[in-house]
Amino acid sequence: MTLSIYLSGEIHTNWRDEIESGCAAAGLDVTFSAPVTDHDASDDCGVAILGAESDKFWHDHKGAKLNAIRTRKAIQDADIVVVRFGEKYKQWNAAFDAGMAAALGKSLIVLHSAEHQHALKEVDAAALAVAETPQQVVQLLTYVQRGTLPA
Amino acid sequence: MTLSIYLSGEIHTNWRDEIESGCAAAGLDVTFSAPVTDHDASDDCGVAILGAESDKFWHDHKGAKLNAIRTRKAIQDADIVVVRFGEKYKQWNAAFDAGMAAALGKSLIVLHSAEHQHALKEVDAAALAVAETPQQVVQLLTYVQRGTLPA
Amino acid sequence: MTLSIYLSGEIHTNWRDEIESGCAAAGLDVTFSAPVTDHDASDDCGVAILGAESDKFWHDHKGAKLNAIRTRKAIQDADIVVVRFGEKYKQWNAAFDAGMAAALGKSLIVLHSAEHQHALKEVDAAALAVAETPQQVVQLLTYVQRGTLPA
Amino acid sequence: MTLSIYLSGEIHTNWRDEIESGCAAAGLDVTFSAPVTDHDASDDCGVAILGAESDKFWHDHKGAKLNAIRTRKAIQDADIVVVRFGEKYKQWNAAFDAGMAAALGKSLIVLHSAEHQHALKEVDAAALAVAETPQQVVQLLTYVQRGTLPA
Amino acid sequence: MTLSIYLSGEIHTNWRDEIESGCAAAGLDVTFSAPVTDHDASDDCGVAILGAESDKFWHDHKGAKLNAIRTRKAIQDADIVVVRFGEKYKQWNAAFDAGMAAALGKSLIVLHSAEHQHALKEVDAAALAVAETPQQVVQLLTYVQRGTLPA
Amino acid sequence: MTLSIYLSGEIHTNWRDEIESGCAAAGLDVTFSAPVTDHDASDDCGVAILGAESDKFWHDHKGAKLNAIRTRKAIQDADIVVVRFGEKYKQWNAAFDAGMAAALGKSLIVLHSAEHQHALKEVDAAALAVAETPQQVVQLLTYVQRGTLPA
Amino acid sequence: MTLSIYLSGEIHTNWRDEIESGCAAAGLDVTFSAPVTDHDASDDCGVAILGAESDKFWHDHKGAKLNAIRTRKAIQDADIVVVRFGEKYKQWNAAFDAGMAAALGKSLIVLHSAEHQHALKEVDAAALAVAETPQQVVQLLTYVQRGTLPA
Amino acid sequence: MTLSIYLSGEIHTNWRDEIESGCAAAGLDVTFSAPVTDHDASDDCGVAILGAESDKFWHDHKGAKLNAIRTRKAIQDADIVVVRFGEKYKQWNAAFDAGMAAALGKSLIVLHSAEHQHALKEVDAAALAVAETPQQVVQLLTYVQRGTLPA
User: Fold this and answer.
1) Which CATH number fits domain C3-36+75-146: 2.170.16.10, 3.40.50.300, 3.40.50.2300, 1.20.140.10?
2) What ipTM does this complex have?
3) For the stretch C73-112, what's the b/e string if a residue is b when 16 or more beta carbons lie within 10 angstroms of its beta carbon?
4) Hey, of B55, B60, B62, which one would you mutate to test binding to chain D, going by the most D CBs within 10 A of its CB?
């Protein structure tokens, strides 16, 4: 039972690497996908490929739609969607991905610090697990695949 | 063609009243639904009905799930989901509702000030209209139902 | 927003009446459906209408399928499925209904005493509310429809 | 035509091993999945990974949700869901899985002794086969894949 | 709980009238739909409206597609599909309707004499009831709606 | 059996009026929806309500999305989608609507002159009827609802 | 683009072999599935594995359900469903499979002699091709996969 | 993350080759499908395999349905549908494919020259990218898969 996992949300810390390397170290049979995590490329992809826009709204719009080609595919293919809320920014795209994942019947895991607990209560209520650290996510995935608990 | 509209998001300004009274004044054939907008009731409904929790996480969790009974029904029944992002708070539940609406194929209208344009670009990219004022939403709905433009 | 509610499970106590009369007293805009609660009719309907069976398995089989015509329709039409687990019997049909409701994306409310908490943990985990009394269900439905809490 | 089979239900006897080894002996092209069958790990996984709970309800709740990540994936991926009802315990989770499988259009095989026939009539009525022994399930799967009957 | 019922199949006996008048006499809250039962109109509708065809295949093809506009709508709107197999003709369209009904998750009731039992075993296996007389169908619908058995 | 019909395509002739008045004269139980047929309003609705655009692409884009709120709703609610291809313009939006209708399982009726037969062969191949005149569509709808043919 | 093809219907002639060997000779990238074509095994599988029945109806019922595990899987996995109507028997199961295939959006190819044209008009109307010989089906599949026509 | 791409539309220029060779040169992990691009074979396939028709409408009809077996499969299997509108012909089949792709939730990329901008505004409004050259499509796909922008 290979698990396909989409890692959505925060792009400014190395939480994805921690989960991916932790799963690799554990020898799990998992595959990962993620949004483009190069912030500048993600912001400018639309105009870089399809032509400049004088209006910032359309500059962003073209880029957001290109990114959606990747993220929609990744969410649809995933068994599990892990959404990480970090300490900075509005991160509405992370909550938007969580809403899509819930509506599509994906297993949702939310990853955030205790500080955001109240603000994320609706997102957490749709999740099958709420974790605080990437290490917990590795342990979760290990349990889901193998049925073994951390020593 | 009655239009069924869910008004999601910000609960601290009277934007819902403006849209509802504007549509009533225009004589549109529309029905509205909304989340519970009494902030205290919304926060405490779970424990008030199902029993107290010592842990804030579960206090919130019980409430968020009760609210989900209402909001899921409202989104599923809607033709159009209008999501309002205000000036304050994280509003992750609003973005979550937008994600659900998009995944369910609902027509999405996003309502926010120019200030939030960049942070909301992924949400806006999934929308069929991005408005700044409730009056624009009234005009949109008038056009969608009758094909007439504002004078 | 009329709420359509299916009341599944135990047929030997008057919990359905309590919920229906409580909602009527509160003036809620709700409709209820239920399985056939006449135990003998429910057991014998198949052979009474379609002819006797010498084998008890097929006697039961014919009846269970007739009842399924009613219960499948009721679950599919429901916004909310309330499943009551009582003190007696195996009640596997109640858990089966809960599984169908969850898979169909219905809002699930489970009603049972504390005694069954551990045995029902998988069912409860799929629910949006776990109540112990019919009165709590009336309060829940009142909140979901009107946003008001019990005094 | 590889058949993907989820083996749901009782975890205290070796019925899964009998089916899996029987199919292996027959050389069938089948894959199996199952819930975590280590009872203690299954009960405690939530708190072991995500932190202790003082309230037994939430202890169970966290665990049941983790287990749901595995079981939902397994049911969704399955062509055939075999649900075994044993002699002990309430086994409401088994009936819940059967309800999900039926609602998702999976082929359902129920495995139980004659003693439970009446209590399981609604579950049996949704099934494509009702067997009493693991050996019968092996014979069923052999027939489904190859069209050959037991000698 | 209004029941919506599509009466498919044989058009040369008055079985539909018997079911409809029986339900009316019982005062049931049901609605009925049916294919066009005027054999000549049904055969010739395509060419009568859209122009003659020299080739019998296309003559039939145009008519069958017009009829499909009506029958697809009726099946999709139905809660229950009753399919009657009579004594004459191939009646492949009846079996085709039954297949569509089963795939769409409709409750299927099959109505035929004992003579056709073996030939209809695959259709019967997908049904929730197999009846021999229109009167049994009336009794079934009475039970499904009211829970009462024939005296 | 009320029929809900979406009239898509050409907006420069009075074909919709002919169908609607023909059905009214026949006393059919049908409801009609249509795109906004005021060409100028349809082109300019986006900028008229949501603000001007200097770039023609975005001017059109905002308008096309507003119109999609209406047309998606109309197609989703329809039992039958009639798509009219006229003599002028590219009419790609008409073919696009036909593709959506086909993918959503709607009954598709195509209305065009013989001249366009070869160019429309893929669209016609997905249709249940291909008509040349509005009068034929009225006759079709009369037959579908009542089973009667033109005298 | 591997094509997955289910060969439904008549089991008393070698039409499946002709299609399979023809496709093999042409080197097509296709996979085939079929019902169990051993008539006796197909009739008796239920009682042979799950125990004898004194009533012929239930004897057939148990067998038909076992066979449905195989055929439902095969239809769901197929891109294309070819349904062959032969010269003998009622063949209602073939028409039932065709109805399921149509409702599930599978590409339907019907294979029958001219003699059955009128009786099969509703089934043919749902098909994307109506062929008279297995050789035509091989040519069809060759064209669908490669775009080449018979010399 | 292998991307599966359907290249719909114009068959008289080598735009498909440019995209395919560009992606190959970039080493992308993509698979392509396309309609039959041999114009004569595509027009005549129906009669060449299934027998001649005297009426041009049915000649075209049989061919269009055969082609639909291929195109429906290709669209359903695709993650991304690229639709190219060229300079000539009505190309209603291209717009029809775009409508199907949109209704099925596929990521839609439209490829056309500026000249067609106004006429394609409804199709463009449903797209996640609107490109003018095959090279841009290669760059888009490179970005979607790898997150890298053109130098």
Assistant:
1) 3.40.50.2300
2) 0.97
3) bbbebbbbbbbbbbeeebbbbbbbbbbbbbbbebbbbbbb
4) B55
